[in-house]
Design a protein that fits this description.
- It is a single chain.
- The chain has a seven-stranded mixed sheet with strand order 2-8-7-6-5-3-4, sandwiched between helices.
- With 389 residues, the chain is of the alpha/beta class.
- The protein folds into two domains: 249 residues, Type I PLP-dependent aspartate aminotransferase-like (Major domain) (Aspartate Aminotransferase, domain 2), CATH 3.40.640; 112 residues, Aspartate Aminotransferase, domain 1 (Alpha-Beta Complex), CATH 3.90.1150.10.
- Helix content is 36%, strand content 15%.
- Helix 9 packs across helix 11.
- It binds pyridoxal-5'-phosphate.
- Pyridoxal-5'-phosphate binds next to helix 3.
């Protein structure tokens, strides 16, 4: 299979991830941070090592502020619902994923939201965010890179603005963690939400929320932490304050190995390869008649995500043909980001998305281009599935 769906979850995982998970399950399978016996302590060490590795990647000074979550959605829910209070105003953008827009919609009876419109290529001027700030604005939340177009948002400028105005800055790094450089301190990020299973190359069911020192975040879930058990209140100590219940130590072991791979290979090397593939695809696809590409051009700053549609072809049918005829896994549909599709004008047509990883090759890109040329000349059977809305 040629796997071009890395923006959903990365595959394959680097060498070492499966081994780390198996080793954790078989050798260190006890409950981490609970019982005090040797196997429990060993499991705790695996979790702690992953925490330290993640802190190093994002220039987080205190590893205990790295909180393990289920995925990026879980981290964003913890951030938004833990910080917002009745009467607050939030500034966000028209390119957000449902993992930002739905929690905000869920809070609509107590908070007001301004969605700053982005340009038709998904780009955003930081100044537009500033114009939307009001007296009662408390939070700015933006995606670092769009999961539909790969557009990179001006996170550094927005962070500086947020700090200057005393606002809490939340970044959705679902498409940038392990892909773009992120320095939580220098970018003035207060809450950084990310999946463990995409660019960080860990297994599904892992995620992270960095909780900066300036934020007083209400815990999203309370319960057993293995510490201060007689106190009725959730302990204030980090990371337990936000990590009630048994952690996914096996998944975290895999995530730790994925992050070590990112460290070992180097973000620059990963990025160079991913960008080369993205550019190769954009340049090749631009020459296919009827191909309409969305987002920044080949030479612009971008994440390794490209969306397109083919004139006269049903998006779901293209996705299904790629899967069934050519064994190419991609994603076709609305990508859980209806606002982004409204911005691009593709809510009706939907889009096919290719997303590349370090493990894809130039040969795979060329083969995918050949398949699209072929599809372009053929009549497609009506989509039966293939589209993910
Ligand atoms: C921009 C963006 N935010 C959030 C998410 C949610 O990530 P997760 O599946 O880890 O919850 C995604 C997933 O694709 C995404 O692309």
């Amino acid at each position: 299979m040629i796997y071009l769906d890395n923006a959903a979850t990365s595959w394959p995982k680097p060498p070492g991830v499966a081994e780390a998970m198996l080793n954790c399950l078989e050798e260190k399978g006890a409950n981490p941070g609970r019982s005090g016996h040797r196997m429990s302590l060993a499991a705790g060490k695996v979790v702690d090592a992953a925490r330290a590795s993640i802190a190093r990647l994002f220039n987080i000074p205190d590893r205990d502020r790295v909180i393990f979550t289920l995925n990026a959605t879980d981290a964003l829910n913890m951030a938004l619902k833990g910080v917002l209070k009745p009467g607050d105003h939030v500034v966000t953008t028209s390119m957000e994923h449902n993992s930002v827009t739905r929690p905000l919609y869920g809070l609509r009876k107590i908070v007001s939201v301004t969605k700053v419109p982005c340009a038709p290529d998904g780009s955003l001027e930081a100044g537009e965010i500033e114009k939307a700030v009001r007296m009662n604005t408390r939070v700015i939340v933006v995606t670092h890179a769009s999961n539909v177009t790969g557009t990179v948002m001006p996170v550094r400028e927005i962070g500086a603005l947020a700090r200057q105005k005393g606002l809490i800055f939340i970044v959705d790094a679902a498409q940038s963690a392990g892909i773009l450089d992120i320095d939580a301190q220098n970018m003035n990020i207060d809450l950084l939400a990310m999946p463990g299973h995409k660019g960080l190359m860990g297994p599904p069911g892992t995620g992270v929320l960095y909780v900066g020192e300036r934020v007083d975040l209400r815990p999203f879930r309370e319960g057993g932490t293995g510490s201060r058990s007689t106190e009725p209140d959730q302990p204030e100590v980090m990371p337990e304050k936000y990590e009630s219940g048994t952690l996914n130590s096996v998944g975290i072991a895999g995530l730790g190995a994925g992050v070590e791979f990112v460290h070992g290979t180097g973000l620059k090397t990963l990025r160079r390869h991913e960008l080369e593939l993205t550019r190769r695809f954009i340049e090749g696809a631009g020459k296919i008649p009827g191909m309409i590409l969305f987002g920044p051009g080949a030479d612009e700053e971008r994440a390794p995500v490209v969306s397109f549609r083919m004139e006269g072809k049903d998006t779901g049918a293209v996705g299904a043909a790629l899967d069934k005829w050519y064994n190419i896994a991609c994603r076709a549909g609305l990508h859980c980001a209806p606002d982004a599709h409204r911005t691009l004008g593709t809510l009706e047509s939907k889009l096919v998305r290719f997303s590349f990883s370090y493990f894809n090759t130039a040969g795979e890109v060329d083969f995918a281009l050949q398949c699209l040329r072929d599809i372009n000349k053929r009549d497609l059977p009506p989509a039966n599935g293939g589209c993910n809305c």
